[in-house]
Amino acid sequence: MTRSTPETSFVRWPTPAGVALVFLAAFAAYAPVFRAGFIWNDSDYVTAPALRSLTGLGRIWFKIGATEQYYPLLHTAFWVEHRMWGDAPIGYHLLNVALHATSAALLLLVLRRLAIPGAWLASFVFALHPVCVESVAWVSEQKNTLSTVFYLLAALDYLRFAERREGRRYAIASLFFALALLSKTVTATLPAALLVVSWWRTGTLSWRRDVAPLLPWLIFGAAAGLFSGWVESHVGGAQGSAFGLNGLQRVLLASRASWFYASKLLWPANLIFIYPRWTITGASLGAWIFAAAVLAAFAVLVAMRGRSRAPLAGALFFVGTLFPTLGFFNVYAFIYSYVADHWQYLASLGLIVPICAALTLATRSLAAPVRRAAGSGLLAFLAILTWRQAGMYSDMETFYRTTLARNPAAWMADNNLGLLLQARGGNAEAIGHFEAALRANPGSAEIHNNYGTALTASRRLDAAEGEYRAALRINPRYSTAWNNLGLLLYQTRRIPEALAAYYESLRLQPDYVPAHFNLGVALLDSGQPEKAVAELGRALGAEQHRAEVHLYLGDAMQDLKRDREAAEQYAMAARLLAPSDASGWYGLGNSLVRQGQLAPAAAAFSMAAKAEPADPKPLFALGNALAAQEQYAPAASAYRRALALAPDLVDVRNNLGNVLLLSGQVAAAVAEYREAVRERPGDPALTESLRRALEMQSGGAQPP
């Protein structure tokens, strides 16, 4: 990063036209993501239903744990975006690419202000480098693209302040720095980066000129970073045996990770969403080689500072910006891998900028057409790599299958692909992926639990129970596994054990809606409707639009003889259920019959019959409701429709005989009674009905 005049830049365009070209290049290279969907944990970032109100917006800012990480400005942006385009992925992808291109353009402005050669080249390389794809194509990583925009805006205004010492500029820069921190706290490294830039420019640091203005930023950034680390550990779960590295191991990990990131920038081949997780031990010679190489590299750069401070400044920026994710602090994703492309999104500038500056200076003696051809070839190569890498984000299945093709040991991809296939009905293939995930990570309670659900769906109940219990041996506080075990026990009619499992699930997680619902169903089944109402009510309060809860509440109210409340629950269920589901209408009809409201009951049964035209049960109930209102012809029609679906329904045929008899169609009634007696010989009630009808036919009796 030797200082130079802008004229030595690799290529020169008027700034507006050049910036437009940066945007065009970025949007072209990332075109595949505009057809992409959401992946992995995007649902944790795209605003959840519980947070979409103004109250939810308040929770984003003031309740730790309301979102996966405490980045309130980021989640406020997602909140606004959801109001703009809802759950449509394209809006989020377009914005992410636009933010990335904006960062590339801001990088250009920062480098031009610093008069660093190769500013245009660095801007384009950052815009098109495939190592950035993970941050740009993955919606969750808007925290990278958004925070980097504010980071570079803060840097730009601080550089303006450093030149003129205007308080207004310092205030604006401080505001942008705060916004960056509220988007992602890796930006806390900015004041240190600015000190590196000051040292690079002057060869020394002055307390008054350089350090004092940045001291508030350093304090605020350190506090934000420590708080973010606490949230990652205590809320995000980045603690336990999976993170049990000692001090030596963390130093060795940081050394290897630093070289890994540098290698992927210099040669971006075989980029993977989840890289193999290294085993870090002090007994490994390779680990010490990486550590020695880091020390040697910095020794060389320090020795070179007399000729140029730029390489050392770039390396300090690179490693310093990576520092929060190098292993000295626990990061939840370490359970999958110790490295990830998106962790070096911002840090990559520490190598991209000096390398582009060096290339520009090294080629300045070449003819302009040659330099432009070489630069265009490099950028085209990067753009093609980015296009190809972006393709893996097209959909969930492609994403996981591509990850597994490049890293077969990526157990998280096997586990999540299994869940995806299971949801689509591909349970047999899902089982294979869960088994592969367990081979790679047998100590995961989550995988054992998911494997158990797949085995349950395949009716391999004994094996499924073993998996749930294995999950609970690993993590006795795993409320989801307790709930799933309870479901299995309920299915095998071990009701007391199922109830105990549900109660344990709720003891561990009192607001776990599925356990409240399942406990309510089991209590209703075990003859405890009052307790069932309480549990189902808790499920309903947390998940208002769950039709099944209303249905079971209706059943419980019915058992308690609270027919009016039962009717209300069934009516709500009927409105929420799919048009092809008759359950709500049928339950409503029955509750109305018990209240003596026969006309609305008949209407409810009619709706149930329309919802499920192949089911004779609603037609039978409809016939009964019409017959009770002495509407014999419509009742007979309903009974006949039911018999057309199931001719062996003796009770329906008997009731048809009754309404035919009551409407004076004695011969037709006799025929129906005869058929009923043939289907159920020896039934005294049917025999009596036939005898009476025969007497009427012979003129010896009156209609009942």
Radius of gyration: 35 Å
Low-pLDDT segments, ≥5 res: 1-11
Q: Shape from CA axes?
A: elongated
Residue share in helix: 55-70%
Counting helices, strands and paired strands, the structural category is mainly alpha
Report the sheet-strand fraction: under 5%
- Continuous helix count: 33
Per DSSP E runs of 2 or more residues, the count of β-strands stands at 0
**What is the first-to-last residue Cα distance?**
106 Å
Overall pLDDT level: 91
Largest sheet: none
Characterise the protein shown here.
By secondary structure, the chain is an all-alpha fold. Among the domains are: 13-46 and 87-386, no CATH class; 658-704, no CATH class. 69% of the residues lie in helices and 0% in strands. It has 33 helices and no strands. It has helices at 15-29, 54-62, 72-85, 89-113, 119-128, 133-137, 142-164, 167-183, 190-202, 207-234, 247-266, 285-304, 310-322, 349-362, 368-390, 396-406, 411-423, 427-440, 445-457, 461-474, 479-491, 495-508, 513-525, 529-542, 547-559, 563-576, 583-594, 598-611, 616-628, 632-645, 650-662, 666-679, 684-697. It is elongated. The N and C termini lie far apart (106 Å).
Task: Provide a brief overview of the structure.
The chain has 704 residues and is an all-alpha fold. Helix content is 69%, strand content 0%.
Any descriptors?
mainly alpha; 704 residues; 69% helix; 33 helices
